[in-house]
Write a structure and sequence with these properties.
Helix content: over 70%
Number of strands: 0
Number of domains: 1
Protein name: ABC-2 type transport system permease protein
Distance between the termini: 33 Å
Shape: globular
Transmembrane segments: 12-35, 55-76, 97-123, 135-157, 164-184, 204-230
Strand content: under 5%
Keywords: Membrane, Transmembrane, Transmembrane helix
Largest sheet: none
Order of helices and strands: HHHHHHHHH
Length: 239
């Protein structure tokens, strides 16, 4: 099983698509920091949780499109041939699919390290800010629920046809421009931009309201449920 894990991870990371996504995410991180975040968001400091959450929210479409690219590999014609071969081995198909999901999550984390690492370097060099612990909450609440939900949606869609995964990429990009209610705002851009303006407080401490936390939790739980359902092998067609 460990050998399979290493093989799947190597196959996912050492290809031109992964390298291209790394370059794009690095370039986009630089652009967002210098154009939207450097002056702060909603009258808060550029290194506040609010501004950092906005930075991550703007990065999410690129990161989630990368995630969907990884998922699309599972449902390509080549992968279907590989799956046909693995089905003839004593490997548990459900566990094998979960293993492949773990490799995709690792690839997603590695992509996320690019904008996160760049932002920490940016804050230290430009603002001498090193209190990086204060940024953990916006990182977890912004990236994790969105990753799980889109991961699950991509896997459910991919079971029907690979093209649905590519359609979800367009949905992810377009959704970023829809001003959803805070509790339904998967990316969080509307929340990070506008919530502080309603508080009438100069530089409020960063926090996540209960209704927003519940919404994030439900997105994450729904995503995990879809991942598990999509990992269950299809019953063979006897016709």
């Amino acid at each position: 099983m460990i050998s399979l894990f290493k093989y799947e991870l190597k196959r996912l990371l050492f290809n031109k698509f992964f390298i291209g996504l790394v370059i794009i995410s690095a370039f986009y991180s630089h652009q967002i920091m210098y154009s939207d975040i450097i002056l702060g968001v909603a009258n808060t400091a550029p290194f506040s949780g609010w501004s950092y959450g906005e930075y991550l929210a703007k990065m999410l479409p690129i990161l989630l499109v990368a995630l969907l690219f990884f998922i699309s590999f599972l449902y390509s014609k080549q992968e279907k041939h590989v799956q046909a071969l693995t089905n003839t081995t004593p490997i548990n198909p459900f566990l094998f699919q979960i293993l492949r999901c773990i490799t995709i999550i690792i690839a997603f984390i590695l992509i996320c390290i690019i904008p996160i690492g760049y932002s920490l370097w940016f804050y230290k060099v430009n603002f001498h800010f090193t209190n990086f612990k204060s940024l953990v909450l916006p990182i977890v609440t912004t990236l994790l629920p969105a990753m799980l939900f889109v991961f699950g949606a991509g896997m459910i869609g991919g079971r029907f046809h690979q093209s649905i995964v590519f359609m979800l990429m367009l949905v992810v990009i377009l959704t970023n421009y829809i001003p959803l209610p805070y509790s339904l705002d998967l990316f969080g851009e509307n929340f990070f931009t506008n919530y502080t303006l309603s508080l009438d407080i100069v530089e409020p401490a960063f926090f996540i309201p209960t209704n927003v936390l519940i919404g994030k939790f439900m997105y994450g739980l729904t995503g995990v449920t879809m991942i598990l359902i999509a990992s269950i092998p299809k019953k063979p067609n006897n016709h």
